[in-house]
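ingest -> validate -> predict -> emit
validate: passed (alphabet ok, no gaps, 801 aa)
predict: started
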Amino acid sequence: MRYPKTKTFIIVAPVILLGIFFIASCATCQKITLPATPPATAGTDRLVPGPNDPRIGYVTARLLEQYHYSHRPMDADISRKFFDGYLDSLDSRHENFLQTDLAEFSHYRTNLDKLTVGGPDGVANLDPAFQIYRRFLVRLQEHDDYVSALLKKDHFKFNTDDRIAIDRRHAPYPKDLTEAEALWAQQLKYDYLMEKLSQEITVTNGNLVVKLPKTAATNITDTLTRRYQRELHIFTNWDSTDVLQSYLNGLTHAYDPHSDYFNPEHAADFSINMNLSLFGIGAQLMEDDGYCTITKLLVGGPADKSKKLREKDRVVAVAQGTNQPVNVVGMELGKVVQLIRGTKGTEVRLTISPADDRAARKIVALVRDEIKLDDQAARAKLIEIPDGQGGTNRLGVIDLPSFYAPVGGEANSQDQATPKFTSVDVAKLVKKLKQERVNGIILDLRSNPGGSLEEAVKFTSLFIKDGPVVQARSDEGVTVDSDPNPGILYDGPLAVMINRYSASASEIAAAALQDYDRAFIVGDSSSFGKGTVQSLNQLRPFVWPATPTATNDPGELKVTIRAFYRISGATTQFRGVVPDIILPDPLDFNSDIESESTLDNPLRLDPIPAAQYEKFNLVQPYVADLSRESATRVATNQDFNYIRQDIEEIKKLDADKTITLNESQAIKDRRVNLARQTAREKEHAARPPKNITVYNLSLDDAGKSGLPAPVYYPGILETNTVSTTTNQSLSVVRYDLIKGGTTNTFFATNSPSGGSGTGSFSVDTITVKNQPDLDPLLEETDNIMVDYISLLMQHGVVTKN
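emit:
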């Protein structure tokens, strides 16, 4: 028997699943009696497991038992977590299921283990999944009916002191239908108020104007009716693979929050996110009132090249080659996307409802091609900051959204996308920044959720000579992943930025560079705190079609197989990576932002012995000085004053955990927020222009000589129209000169004529073209890097380029 190749995410190395076996029977398993099938909405009682689904359920459970890091057998405790997790996946706000429903299904809560792996035929009994799903649809239909009836009455009053809970994820389910209807009515009242405020409030010249349009009541009723019907439609359109996906993720998450079952559709999405590439037409799509609508055409893709599609066009049918079209109106967006994606070089025919003529229909034939998701790849910027001595400090910033690497496509090599590797792309950017003689490099790993551990190791190796990068522990012992390449690509001053969203592979890279004392870490009080490793396993070798019509793709299982450790022996699980210098950030105080410690069923890890490695001794001697100088700046920096104000507001909201349903109070709150925002914008506009120059560098730019055109940051946040004869007070600020419908860029100076540069300046007005400020945390990291370079120069560690 051949076993599947796997990929590891936060990932150590490919894993071959050897010696796997399935227990055909269990002498200690007890037979249990299944309840009668509960009532269901019309048509949903016909939804049953697919031919392969029982086998998929069984295989998933056995793989978890044997290969999950915890090696826990399915037992009553796992069954309880499995049951609760499945309910949460359907009803995350705890507002549709009734406690009477839970009581009816309560015998499942401690018997899902027996139903999943206790049968004699190597298949799972999936009746609980579909019975609970059907009951959920009954409640969701009742929810929709109740809301529709309330909307027809349209007698909402917003003059009480009622408030609504922001988060019901951990609230008890309603006891009965009466209590559920009270929750539904309160949520609808909140939804109605939000829609009403959006229609009656406008902002004019910095002032909040309240005026309700005459058509508001009808518009709000129609909008909310469609919204609730769409939610119902999404769930009633589920097929057996959707139910299985949700059910088995209840099982995988009972083991830990990072193990997942992917049905074929979600497996494809995961592959795309890792590969940064797909085969399709190059269009971004969204669901709009039941229609699959084009929101963007990707430059160079088949849709863009055809010149036959535009934004806001609707896709109403999809045909493969010469086959008959499939009507996709009302179809779940993910399923429409799957129809449009396909093998490179094949034809897909789209029936389009044009944006300018909804009654018309036209067919557009496109040949699928590889679509690069370059906006999600590594990128960089070069920042020039005056050093106060007539020169400049040149800093490089590399922004890395994830640790991507090829995954999937083994079965058909000719369909594989052009591979993209994080380490290769970052190396290109580092080489470019070195060519431009930067004085220091900042690695921005903020909001980087992780990805390939192998790429995290290679990425780290660009900045160290040799040695271990990460340790991993499994039941086979502790292994060490080391720098695979001798030598060092960049040995200059280095910093790493992290935040609460930095997780997994990004934590490994940051932790290693911190343990080596190679880079100083800046950011939130800690990163996410994920210290586990997953492997990706195709289920196809274990699931043979039960019938000739059964699916040939049973999906994939991502299972936690190892725990990773810092080379110091510490774990990032729960704790995350703690920066050398912590900067104020609202993310640090928002309880809605999850971390490992807030997820259900996280693993608990203990430290292990340290690996052998040699520190660079490049950071700790200077951290005290860097922290002191940074704290002084942050204490007086106006942008950080704003951040501290925002943090206080977040703390107040978090302590309350409710939102007002009083319209007057809501409007008052918005006036306060607008006044605060307007004052900040005016203060920003009054600042002198920033004397910095920024060059944005894509991967394409990294292969070219020289630099692209710079981006200027004048520190002006609102558009102003000014006379060209009153520009004497302006220094170097970027403007766009608008004349005759065209825009010419020039730079205003202190000259009486009002400017010099390209274009003609004989017009009466110019429009200030706004550029955003650098974000305060990055700007302060730049300042810390400048201080760091200065300290290293003083101690003879580096010399200025």
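The two ends are 60 Å apart (CA to CA).
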